[in-house]
Amino acid sequence: MREKRTGSTIIFIVDASGSMGAKKRMSAVKGAVVSLLTDAYQKRDKVGLIAFRKKEAEVLLNITRSVDMAEKHLKALPTGGKTPLSAGLLKGYEMIKIAQKKNPDMLPIIVLVSDGRTNAAINGGEPLDEALEVANKIQMEGIRSIVVDTEQDFIKLEIAKDIAQALGARYYKLEELEGEQLAEAVRQCTSYFQI
């Protein structure tokens, strides 16, 4: 039997709200996305980027293999405002569902970069409950995920860990990962999931 490498579609969902670690968080994510895109050609992987802030999630980069496009969109990434985590997760889920219709064989992976401290809901309910609900839905659909926890406050709430659990995700802390290490974690994740 011949093995077919279909390639992964990796959706970065980035918390761009106005918390302390925004600058450090963005530089780690920018480095990772560019690094992932650089070797996406050989592996036929594709990358997309969603940022969430204020009251909504925005697709900054539609699924692509273009390194130049990714760098251009990442440079202009705005930060500040509230943290609508469930909107970000939902947008990532929808993006993957659309991609799966076009290519049912691709391996979808979500990389959530956030401290989990959500304070804005889509339907006006409890923001964390809503985010956990969407995270559970993503896990039920069999979508693989990684959570990079950006929490840097002295008192740790570890909400991102709860989100990771609901997603069935691999969990990392931002300080453990710089750009290239984050890309490596994602690469390990894709090969791990293909075994």
Tags for this entry?
Rossmann fold; single chain; 195 residues; 6 strands; alpha/beta; 22% strand; six-stranded mixed beta sheet; globular
Protein topology:
Layout lengths: L7 E8 L6 H17 L1 H4 L2 E8 L2 E9 L2 H9 L9 H18 L4 E8 L12 H14 L3 E6 L9 H9 L2 E4 L5 H16 L1
Parallel strand pairs: 1-2, 1-4, 4-5, 5-6
Antiparallel strand pairs: 2-3
Helix pairs in contact: 1-3, 1-7, 4-5, 5-6
How would you describe this protein?
The protein has 195 residues and is an alpha/beta fold. It has one domain (16-23, 38-194): 3-Layer(aba) Sandwich (Rossmann fold). The protein is 45% helix and 22% strand. Helix 5 (127-140) links the parallel strand 4 and strand 5 (144-149). The radius of gyration is 15 Å and the shape is globular. It starts with 7 loop residues before the first strand and ends with a helix.
* Beta content: 15-25%
CATH architectural category: 3-Layer(aba) Sandwich
Q: Which fold name is given in CATH as the topology?
A: Rossmann fold
N-to-C series of helices and strands: EHHEEHHEHEHEH
Tell me the number of strands: 6
| Main pleated-sheet profile | 6 strands, mixed
At a glance:
The chain is of the alpha/beta class and 195 residues long. The protein is built from seven helices and six strands, in the order βααββααβαβαβα.
